[in-house]
Amino acid sequence: MDKQDKLKNKLQQMQAQMIMLNEQVNVGGENQGGLYADLEEFSTLLEELSVAEEELRVQNEELENTRLAVEKERSRYLELFEFAPDGYLLSDKFGIILEVNQAMSLMLNTPAERLGGKPLALFIYSEDKKEFRNKLNNIGAVETIENWDLRLQPKKKEMIHSRVKITVKHKPTEKTFELFWMFHNVSDLVEITEMLRVSEANLKLLSNDLVSRIEDEKMKLSMDLHDHIGQALTCLKLSIRPNILMNKDYQEQKEILEIASQQIGEILDSVADLSLRLRPQLLDDLGLAKAISWRIKQVMKQTGSMIKENITLEIAKRFDTPVEITLYRIFEEALNNAVKHANANVITITLAEGDNAIKLTIADNGIGIDPSELEKESQHSGFTGMKERINMIGGTLQTTSKLGIGTTIQATAPII
Ligand SMILES: Nc1ncnc2c1ncn2[C@@H]1O[C@H](COP(=O)(O)OP(=O)(O)OP(=O)(O)O)[C@@H](O)[C@H]1O
Ligand SMILES: [Mg+2]
User: Fold this and answer.
1) For strand 176-185 and strand 307-311, is the pairing parallel, antiparallel, or unpaired?
2) Dihedral through CA 277, CA 278, CA 283, CA 286, nearest 10?
3) Which CATH architecture has domain 84-185?
4) pTM
5) Which of 2, 35, 52, 294 shows the smallest number of beta carbons within 10 Å?
6) Ligand 1 atom nearest to 385, measured from its CA
7) Which ligand is nearest to the CA of 388?
8) Which residue has its alpha carbon closest to ligand 1 atom 24?
9) Which ligand 1 atom is at minimum distance from the Cα of 344?
10) pLDDT tens digits in sequence order for the chain, 416 residues long
11) For the structural domain made of 282-416, what CATH number should be given?
12) How many Å lie between the centroid of ligand 2 and the Cα of residue 403?
């Protein structure tokens, strides 16, 4: 029997006692002894009643404390729901929105009070609507749906990629259920994955391109070996042998040997040139500034071009190998272009360090590049190669050219 029943019992007993007492008072003085006994019992009952009342008061106090604690907990959960970083939404089984938290209202770009009563389908990206309806129609058969990639279409905003979890909440008394939706915004993740996919595809293209470039270069080298060095050696052999066999006099032999030694000198230059094209050893040994300076002198000697050197980069300073190789290859290509195409009086090479970068400039005062020529750049491997190389080390390439004025190529490579 709980405290309330006990109290009720006591009250009923007291009521009965009161009636009896009343009757005895009405009957009068004949039964004085019985009246006293009844009064005694009545006062005991009063005592018990006050104890029961006290117990009830304590019980009420406990109940109130529990109610307050429950209320506090409830508001804490409401806060968690309201300010959670993910979008939470409660809907009926047809997907009609009943309640949303702040994150959800932000995701749908609609105030929470305007979402209640609206079908969630309104905010589903058009291509996903069919799947959304199918899932919703069959949802009664399952308890939860997890990791469902569903695209949302907020009002007047870009589509959002979300990962959804749905929990079915049964309401046994009403023989129906509600749906508790959790939307996690994964748009950034999708964007990063897409960027990764594109850069992987680019990398594949680049590496294919690199392989074909290496093959081209090998072919050019083998042709150079055959055409230049092979032929020069054959000439040398042909010029020396019969002359020696003919037993010419000392003066004639001296002249032949002088020509031969000149030819050998040229062959040595070609070999040095080829080995430099394969891998600029000088670059490895001495660094960027010295290798560029050496090559400038060599090209001036070979072509007779006027090349001015403006190197302020600390001469012995070394940089990461990819940076040195990239800048050296760009220098080679741009200088080669200037010598081959520009018809310039002077070519100026500038190499300087500043703002955590190395700047390499190849400027000529030649004929300039026809803009239409630059547009067809895919046909020319030189320009494309320079751009790809600098991109690979996170640098930039700038080309400025004016017809009749000249061309300037500037490569900027970051250094840490
Ligand atoms: N400094 C320059 N002055 C004038 N024209 C130039 C200069 N540099 C390049 N060009 C023009 O731009 C074109 C593209 O140059 P690019 O280096 O891409 O190809 P290329 O030198 O013709 O061939 P490759 O470098 O593949 O041997 C050249 O054919 C030339 O017409
Ligand atoms: Mg070129």
Assistant:
1) unpaired
2) -110
3) 2-Layer Sandwich (3.30)
4) 0.49
5) 2
6) 18
7) 1
8) 382
9) 3
10) 566 677 778 778 777 877 777 777 776 655 666 677 777 777 787 788 788 788 888 888 999 999 999 998 888 888 878 888 899 999 999 999 999 999 999 999 999 999 999 999 999 999 999 999 999 998 877 889 999 999 999 999 999 999 999 999 998 888 899 999 999 999 999 889 999 999 888 888 877 777 777 777 777 777 777 777 778 888 888 777 766 667 667 787 788 788 888 888 888 878 877 776 676 777 888 899 999 998 999 899 989 999 999 999 888 889 988 899 899 999 999 999 999 999 999 999 999 998 899 999 999 999 999 877 776 655 667 888 898 889 889 999 999 999 999 999 999 999 97
11) 3.30.565.10
12) 18
Please choose, from the candidates 350, 353, 284, 362, the residue with its C-alpha nearest in 3D space to the C-alpha of residue 313: 353
53-77: string of b/e by CB count within 10 Å (b at 16+)? eeeeeeeeeeeeeeeeeeeeeeeee
Rounded Cα gap, residues 12 and 1, in angstroms: 15
What span, in angstroms and rounded, lies between the C-alpha atoms of 360 and 306?
A: 18
* Helix, strand or coil, per DSSP, at residue 114: helix
Residues 120 and 125: their CA atoms lie apart, in Å, by: 11
CA–CA dist 124, 383 (Å, integer): 47
The domain segmentation of the chain, as residue ranges, is 3-80, 84-185, 188-278, 282-416
Distance 291 CA to ligand 2 centre (A): 20
> Residue 101, class by beta-carbon neighbours within 10 Å (0-12 exposed, 13-18 middle, 19+ buried)?
buried
Centroid of ligand 1 to alpha carbon of 412 (angstroms): 20
